[in-house]
C-alpha cells in the first residue's frame, strides 16, 4: 500500500492526500512545481520515472490513513 507522504521531498510543501503529487517506484514524493525543474522530469534520487500519485478514496483513508512522516532531501538530490 502506498504511504501517501505528506510533503514534497524537495521544497517541503504540504501535500494533502488529494493534491497532485508525483512519485517514483521508491515513493519519493514531489510537487508538480519541483518536478518541472527536474532534468527529464526524472526522480533526482534514483533517476526513475515519475508518475502522478494516485489518490486514495476518502472512505479508504479512514481505515488506511496517509503517512505523517515527512521526508526532505533539501536539494532534491538525496538517495533512494
Automatic annotation (TrEMBL):
InterPro entries: DUF1272. It holds the Pfam family DUF1272. It comes from the Bacteria. This is DUF1272 domain-containing protein. It comes from uncultured Microbacterium sp.
Amino acid at each position: 500500500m502506498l504511504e501517501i507522504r505528506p510533503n514534497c521531498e524537495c521544497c517541503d510543501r504540504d501535500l494533502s492526500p488529494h493534491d497532485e503529487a508525483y512519485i517514483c517506484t521508491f515513493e519519493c514524493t514531489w510537487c508538480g512545481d519541483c518536478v518541472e525543474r527536474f532534468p527529464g522530469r526524472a526522480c533526482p534520487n534514483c533517476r526513475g520515472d515519475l508518475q502522478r500519485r494516485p489518490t486514495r478514496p476518502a472512505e479508504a483513508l479512514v481505515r488506511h490513513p496517509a503517512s505523517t512522516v515527512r521526508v526532505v532531501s533539501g536539494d532534491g538530490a538525496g538517495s533512494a
